[in-house]
């Protein structure tokens, strides 16, 4: 429960209609896209501008009340669940495109703008903003910045981090900072812009972002390659890159995913394939034709059993459906779907998929794997039932093994979903005790009273790393 | 003077030959590429590997002795001058290429490797590492990482930051951390990799770097466009980008630079031009031809007085000579050459060049400007004489005005040279008091005893920003 005077002051800052603490508002903001996590906030506030955010922060800091900044809550790491209560600050009213600068190829936006709306506005002007997280139809630009969202185009174009040039942000004490600018080069001090991207709302509240836009590719071509041999698919991925081709998209689905997707979307996919690669190249027409022809010959050399190249956009959309429906198809199987994003160097994809399958078998859980093969960012996805604690325990054990396997292969516990609360116990496995200590020091520098999204990134307890019987 | 026991221990760590405190070694490491700055260290140490660096740091931390990490000392911000004495740690013995991974397109190198040697090795394998600072023939990869070096290809390909995927670094207390990896996506905690890049040796000592390589462009074409109208040149820059073309290189020289370069290199450049643009495009042959034709038509529409497109690599080299000899030609004029790198949004280049000319006139100093027009990164260069304190004072006043003008135009005090000691008094102008406070907190988290390159980035005194008579 918040102090009634504080509540009154919050209402004065944002207007009575924009602070809520009714049951419906609290429950709606007690969870996000992450399964099996819920905690009620004490209030929900909807600021209209930076000044309101700053005033709110000054007030909450004086009362030592935690604040959880939230876009659409589509994250998958529990990043916006108010674990320690406090106020959820929703950015939806700050959803305007402030400027598109055609001379400098930048866009300046408020954090609450929906990613897909931003992208389609940018595209209507003949420009291109590559980060395309699967949640883009509901996610916000601010949420993408908080999580450093990736997507299907990450291999060729990078992730959100590569497109954030400057930020305005409110600190825990209510002060406003500005980092970077419409500048392709800026080395004035430590790079606070890149530090804030991916900091999951634990360091500052982003209130405005200047994003880099790029010229759009002129054309795009899409193909599928299907393999009975998992290693053939993995070798194809490496061979494409080794041939000095960076495709726009290079996605992977394993056999369990193929079967579920086909049952769901009736695409006529062969159920006996161990892997399907979805490959897209974009750019100048001549380059695209040449690259796709070369990729096709690599697929053939690596014994792909079937190759389909889309003749037009309509056929391409059909091929894309296979990959796009993966999560939805898997989510139909059981009541609870847990999607992870263990990531490895791209040369280790086949090893990782095999390890995932062994681990699933060992713990007797159902895990299907799909993801971004080109950048080694896999999504092992468990279909389970949150009402069965014994099974959930086995799923958790399996993911623990998966994180460990990813790190053993030179990878990481999260490629694009973030640490949040779900992966906090494993973060030390990746960054080490000294790395954790440095990160705690950075948190301290920004937020000495631990008011910004407390309980995220830093776990109360780190999981012990045990020697696991590889059986 | 260092404690003799400490010196003995340093000798034991690296071997007697690899610690020096003779006069020659101290003087050689008392200055770097920056004019008018000198301070003697107490000793110079040449570690052979990470373990030695860690042991040295444990020892120096116990004795509270500052350490200044140094590659070739080619930086231009006083970044490696041992202002507070201490030990200069030279990375030259740690100069090996540890691995080129063709499957993941990464290179893992030690920090002391010379940039140009790294690049030519990479190119001999048919790959490409774009960052190309002008100092690349002497600079080291570690120095490039410390300063986040840019170069002529920054516009299209980005700077050092965009190519560092992972680091091994030794902390002030001698602990070793590893950040990132051979991973295109990694959001496990705060991005320490990008934070260390450009941190100028003030946060940690980089002992190993994993760098991203990319497929090389198939071909390249070079052209010069000359203008009597400065704004015509500036509009050309903006129009090229607005036309959705990102050239590989888009360089600028103003009239004073053109004249000096021509006197030096006898290129037959017309002395009455206000600006020359050097433009290069690379990529697939068809794309390059199309882009260069379109760029040519933009130059013509913006009233370029003369356009030269190189027919072959030999002609291209001749055109490149004009830009490449700018610094050398200017350096011949007077005993002291001060090269700055005020940076503005690219749409503001003409405004900035005119402001620089006004400022030079006001303070009665000679400043020629050239630089990377495509990314707004200008190099106003003062030719002066360090032996004349009155003139040097006027030059300093002029640069103070230039930094202020850059910030007023939405720019920054340094695009690629770093803050070091030279620009430390101005850093607060760009990042604000709250930004400085956060940066101090970050420094504290990494280096609580202020042993790593002390006196850099953070100035003892910040210059007051005064209202200047624009006369």
Structure description:
The structure is a homodimer of 471-residue chains. The longest helix of chain A has 20 residues. Chain A folds into three domains: 216 residues, 2-Layer Sandwich (Uridine Diphospho-n-acetylenolpyruvylglucosamine Reductase, domain 3), CATH 3.30.465; 110 residues, Alpha-Beta Plaits, CATH 3.30.70; 112 residues, Alpha-Beta Plaits. The first copy, chain A, has 15 helices and 16 strands. Chain A is an alpha+beta fold and 471 residues long. The N and C termini of chain A lie far apart (51 Å). In chain A, a hairpin with a 4-residue loop joins β5 and β6. In chain A, α1 runs antiparallel to α3, α8 packs antiparallel against α10 and α9 crosses α12. A seven-stranded antiparallel beta sheet of chain A has the order 13-10-12-11-15-16-14, sandwiched between helices. Chain A has a five-stranded antiparallel beta sheet with strand order 5-6-9-7-8. The C terminus of chain A is likely disordered.
SSE layout and pairing:
Two copies of one chain form a homodimer.
Chain A lengths: L3 H11 L4 E2 L2 H6 L14 E3 L4 H13 L4 E4 L16 E4 L6 E5 L4 E4 L5 H10 L16 H7 L6 H4 L6 E7 L5 E5 L11 H5 L8 E8 L6 E9 L2 H13 L6 E6 H11 L9 E9 L1 H17 L4 E4 L3 H12 L1 H8 L2 E4 L9 H14 L4 E6 L4 E8 L4 H20 L18 H20 L25
Parallel strand pairs in A: 2-4, 3-4
Antiparallel strand pairs in A: 1-2, 5-6, 6-9, 7-8, 7-9, 10-12, 10-13, 11-12, 11-15, 14-16, 15-16
């Amino acid at each position: 429960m918040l102090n009634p005077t504080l509540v009154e002051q919050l209402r004065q800052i944002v207007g009575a209609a924009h602070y809520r603490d009714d049951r419906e508002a609290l429950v709606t903001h007690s969870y996000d896209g992450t399964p099996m996590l819920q905690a009620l906030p004490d209030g929900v506030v909807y600021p209209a501008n930076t000044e309101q955010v700053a005033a709110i922060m000054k007030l909450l800091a004086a009362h030592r009340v935690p604040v959880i900044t939230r876009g659409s809550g589509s994250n998958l790491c529990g990043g916006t669940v108010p674990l320690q209560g406090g106020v959820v600050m929703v950015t939806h009213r700050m959803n305007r495109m402030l400027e598109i600068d055609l001379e400098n190829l930048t866009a300046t936006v408020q954090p609450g703008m929906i990613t897909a709306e931003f992208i389609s506005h940018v595209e209507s002007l003949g420009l291109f903003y590559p980060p395309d997280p699967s949640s883009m139809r509901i996610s916000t630009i601010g949420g993408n910045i908080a999580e450093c969202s990736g997507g299907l185009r990450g291999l060729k174009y990078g992730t959100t981090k590569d497109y954030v040039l400057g930020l305005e942000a409110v600190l825990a004490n209510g002060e406003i900072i500005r980092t970077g600018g419409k500048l392709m080069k800026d080395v004035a001090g430590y790079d606070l812009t890149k530090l804030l991207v991916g900091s999951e709302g634990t360091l500052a509240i982003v209130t405005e972002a200047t994003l880099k836009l790029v010229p759009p590719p002129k054309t795009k071509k899409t193909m599928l390659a299907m393999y009975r041999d998992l290693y053939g698919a993995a070798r194809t991925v490496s061979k494409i890159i080794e041939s000095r081709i960076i495709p726009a998209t290079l996605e992977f689905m394993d056999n369990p995913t193929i079967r579920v997707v086909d049952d769901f979307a009736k695409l006529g996919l062969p159920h006996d394939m161990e892997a399907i690669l979805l490959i897209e190249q974009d750019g100048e027409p001549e380059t695209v034709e040449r690259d796709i022809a070369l990729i096709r010959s690599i697929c053939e050399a690596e014994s792909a059993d079937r190759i389909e190249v889309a003749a037009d956009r309509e056929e391409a959309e059909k091929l894309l459906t296979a990959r796009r429906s993966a999560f939805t198809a898997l989510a139909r199987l059981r009541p609870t779907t847990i999607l992870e994003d263990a990531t490895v160097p791209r040369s280790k994809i086949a090893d990782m998929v095999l390890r995932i399958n062994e681990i699933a078998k060992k713990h007797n859980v159902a895990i299907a794997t799909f993801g971004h093969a080109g950048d080694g960012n896999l999504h092992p996805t468990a279909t389970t039932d949150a009402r069965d604690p014994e099974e959930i325990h086995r799923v958790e054990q399996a993911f623990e093994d998966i994180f460990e396997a990813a790190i053993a292969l030179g990878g990481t516990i999260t490629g694009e979903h973030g640490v949040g609360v779900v992966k906090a116990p494993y973060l030390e496995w990746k960054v080490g005790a000294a790395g954790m200590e440095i990160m705690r020091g950075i948190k301290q520098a920004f937020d000495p009273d631990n008011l910004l999204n407390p309980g995220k990134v830093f776990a109360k307890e780190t999981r012990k790393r045990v020697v696991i019987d590889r059986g």
